[in-house]
Amino acid sequence: MHKRILVTGGAGFLGSHLCERLLDAGHDVLCVDNFFTGTRRNIRHLLENRSFELLRHDVTFPLYVEVDEIYNLACPASPIHYQFDPVQTTKTSVIGAINMLGLAKRLKIKLLQASTSEVYGDPTIHPQKEEYWGNVNPIGFRSCYDEGKRCAETLVFDYVRQHRMPAKVVRIFNTYGPRMHPNDGRVVSNFVVQALTGRDITLYGGGSQTRSFCYVDDLVDAMMRMMATGPEVTGPINIGNPTEFTIRELGELILELTGSKSKLVFEPLPSDDPKQRQPNIDRARDILGWEPTVGLREGLLKTIEYFDDLLRKGDRPNEVGASRVLVS
Ligand code: NAD
Ligand code: UDP
Ligand code: UDP
Predict the structure, then answer these.
(1) pLDDT of 98-132, one tens digit each?
(2) Is there a domain that residue 288 lies in?
(3) Rounded-to-integer distance, Cα 40 and Cα 4, Å
(4) Nearest CA to ligand 3 atom 25
(5) Which of 9, 108, 262, 312 could form a disulfide with 73 if both were Cys (CB 3.0 to 4.6 A apart)?
(6) Mean pLDDT across the stretch 238-258?
(7) Which CATH number does the domain housing residue 125 bear?
(8) Using CA atoms, how far apart are residues 232 and 270, in angstroms rounded to an integer?
């Protein structure tokens, strides 16, 4: 069925891919973004599409529009970006969620909240299941993001219980792909840009910490499947690729795939940096019939191609914040 779909954070990395896929599926898309970390370049190719509408708006302010579904993605996602203005990060997660839930409540429509594996903090159980409550520092440099996202989840479940709304939560684990911000300091974008420009590959700590990397197309597929579920499915559901790598292995693979002569160097581990992370995706398999299909090698090749093209064009997006995350 044809729908009008609101995507907040639609000019960002994940949001722009989601807008594209929703348009491909025949829907009208209203993309709302304040361009803090998102860029027009990510959605430039959609602007001519008559089913696509762009609205510059900050979700911490109320929004009165008429739509059939809401994907709430607005929030800076990389440590450098969310630590740049931490108070605004918490406001975006919390007040943004209240406004989008208020909109969904008025219209009696579904809302999907993009939550994060960061709600598990530095996890003490491995791999992480949805039942795990997490190990989060409430007052550290990452807290504006982690606690903001935790509070947004609380709001979703209270709106569901209190107002009987069909809202849902997905917990997204590290996702990568074309249109990541080249200066966002995340490990995949950092390593690929460093390898392509011949700069040192910066392993924080010993590089023995682990992450599990999901390619963006798989992630978007899971989000759309989640939105298609009935009101009884609220989540939270983990979405990610359970194949786990050390950060050092990631660095070595990127060197191999780019053929770069860059060297691996060690830098201090940022404060509260989780030591390991791997999703348990049994719920996603059972409830959504979903599992990732793109392996790291294949996904990295597409990502490398994107950054190679970007660097050749010299097309640099907006610069935000410091050049690296806070260490102590
Ligand atoms: P991104 O920074 O590329 O996208 C976020 C978008 O939100 C940007 O376009 C930004 O301009 C916009 N935005 C920020 N504050 C806003 C505000 N107040 N009002 C309106 N727009 C605002 O990051 P992303 O990786 O695409 O992340 C999208 C969502 O997915 C975020 O909610 C993030 O927390 C979540 N997530 C992402 C990952 C990942 O690995 N990429 C992992 C876990 C969760
Ligand atoms: N809201 C919005 N668009 C709407 C409806 C509500 O942005 O179409 C915002 C509004 O700012 C409101 C918030 O969502 O404060 C929460 O709405 P809700 O109805 O839950 O609470 P209330 O209106 O009582 O504050
Ligand atoms: N990391 C790294 N070098 C970099 C950027 C990140 O070693 O240049 C590490 C970082 O310390 C963390 C992991 O890679 O252990 C993933 O970092 P990212 O910021 O991508 O995501 P998150 O920590 O939020 O999972």
Answers:
(1) 999 999 999 999 999 999 999 999 989 999 999 99
(2) no
(3) 21
(4) 174
(5) 9
(6) 97
(7) 3.40.50.720
(8) 40
